[in-house]
Amino acid sequence: MGFRRHGNGVAGMAERAGSGGLVLAATILASSLAFIDGTVVTVALPAVQEGYGAGFDAAQWVVNGYALMLGALVVVTGGLGDRYGRRRIFVAGILVFTAASVACALAPSVAFLVGARIVQGIGAALLVPQSLAIISATFPRERRGRAIGTWAAASGATTAFGPPLGGFLVDALDWRAAFWINVPLAAVALWLTFRAVPESRDPGARGPIDWTGAVLAIVGFGLLAAGLTGFSGGMGGAGAFAPAAIAAGIVGLAVFVAVERRAADPLVPPVLFRSRTFTGANLLTLFLYGCLAVTLFLLPYELQVRRGLTPTQTGWTLMPFGIVLALGSRFAGGLADRFGPRLFLVTGSALVALACALFALAVEDFWLGVVAPLLLMAIGMTIVVSPLTTAVMNAVPQNRAGAASSVNNAAARVGGLLAVAAVGALAGLIYVGATGDPSARFGILPEAAEARAVALDAFLVAYRAAMAVSAGLAALAAVAAAVFLRPETPREA
User: Fold this and answer.
1) How many CB atoms lie within 10 A of CB 307?
2) Which region holds residue 283: left if phi is over 0, alpha if psi is between -120 and 50, else beta?
3) Does residue 469 form part of some domain?
4) Which of 335, 66, 18 is nearest to 182 (CA)?
5) Which of 4, 73, 105, 446 has a 20 to 30 A CA-CA distance from 123?
6) How far apart are CA 309 and CA 319, in angstroms?
C-alpha cells in the first residue's frame, strides 16, 4: 500500500495524524547533530591536540576528514532518499553518525579519531539532505515555507549554542564528552522519526547514482587536502610526499571533470556552469566559506593558547556569531528579493574580508581584537547567506534546482576543506620557522618560561599571516560577485 493512495499523499497523511510538529522536531534534532558537531569540535580542538600530544596536521584532519566526506557525498545522498526512501536513508544517517560519535569518544589514538570523523561525515551526508526532503514531502505547499523557515531558524539557534555547550563539556568533563552528547540527542531523533515520519520517495527517480563521480571527488579532494596538510609537518613524515599527493589530487580532479562531462546523469552537471551567475556564486562560495572555515578553525587556538581563555569562555565568545546569523538571515533574504543579490554578496564578502584583516592585527584588547571583528564577520555572513541561495536558485531552471543547491552546498564544504588544509599548513610552517625548532607543534606551548615566550611570539606571527590570507580569500569572494553577477535594478529583481 503506497502513500499516494491517501488523498494528499504523505503530506495529507501527516496532516491528518497531527504529526507535523513531531516530523519537524525530528528533522531539526537530527540536522542539529551535524551542525552542532562542527562548532563543538572546533572549540575542543586545542584540548584534543594536547590530549594526544598530536601535531597540528592531525588537528586539521579532525576537521577535514568530516568535511571531505560531507562535501563529496552530499550531492549523491539526496538522490538515495528519492530512490530508496527518505526516512530509510535519514535513519541510516542517524545510526552511522551516532556509531561514529561513539567511536570518536572512545578513540585510543588521533589516527583512530580521524577515521571515526570520516565515518561521521558519511553519516552527516546521509541525514542532512533528507531533512529538507522529508519536510517538503510531509507538509502541504501552503505550510511548507513556514516549516522550512522554522527548521532553518531552529537549526541556526542550535548551531549558535554549539560552542558554549562544547566548551562547558570540555571543561566539566573532557573533550570526549563533546562526542558523547550526540548519543542521547540521536536517540530522541530516532524515536521521533519512527513515531511520526512517514516514508516517502520519488516514483520518477530513475537512472544510476553517479558513484564513479563521487569516488573520484573523494580521492581527488582527499589527496589534494592530504598534500597541502603534509606541508605543515608531522603525519609520520608525510611532508616528503606532499608534492606527489597534490599532483595526484589534481590528476584525480581532472579525471573527475572528464567523467562528469560524459556521464548520463552526472554528479555535478556541467550544463549548470554555462550560467555566468551560477559560476560566480559558486566561486564566491568556495572562497568565502574557505575564509570562514579557516577563521573558525584558528580562532579557538588564539583564544585559548594566546589569550588563556577556557573552552567554556571560548564557546561563549563565539556564540554571538551564530545568533546574529540566525536572526538576520531572513531579513537579508527579503531585501535581496527586492533589490537583487549582487549588492549584498559584494558588500557582505567585503565586510568579512575587513573582519579578517582586523583579526590579523591581533590587537591585545579583547573587545577590539576579538569581539568587534567577530561581530563584523557575523554581519557580513548574514548579508551573504540568503542572497547567495537566491542567486544560485535563480541562475538555473526549476528542474535543476536540487542539483544546483547540492553543488553549492558541496562548494562550501570543499572550500573549507582546502582552505583549512592550505592555510593551516602555512600557519604550521611559519610557526616552526619562527621557533627555530623543527619539532615544534602549533597550538602546544612548552612548559619552560623562555621557550614558552618564544612559542607565543611564533604563534602570533603564524596567526597573523593565516588571518591575512583568510582576508584575501574573502576579498576574492567579493571580486567574484562583482565580476560574475550582473547588476540588477529593483524592477528586474
Assistant:
1) 16
2) alpha
3) yes
4) 66
5) 4
6) 15
| Model pLDDT for residues 418-459, shown as the tens digit of each residue | 898 889 889 888 988 888 877 777 877 777 778 788 888 899
| 293 torsion bin: left (phi>0), alpha (psi -120 to 50), beta (else) | alpha
Q: Please report, as a single letter, which amino acid is at residue 302.
A: E
pLDDT tens figures, 139-187: 776 676 667 667 766 766 766 777 887 788 888 888 888 888 889 989 9
Around Cβ 454, how many Cβ atoms within 10 Å? 18
CA distances from 365 to 6, 342, 391 (A): 63, 35, 38
Global pTM reads 0.83
Give the total number of structural domains in the chain: 3
The parent domain of residue 101 ranges over 10-197
- Nearest Cα to Cα of residue 99 among 127, 74, 79, 78: 127
Whichever domain contains 404, its CATH number is: 1.20.1250.20
Are 431 and 459 contacting, i.e. CB atoms less than 8 angstroms apart? yes
- 8 Å CB contact between 466 and 426: yes
Q: Is the domain of 343 the same as that of 444? A: yes
1 found inside a domain: no
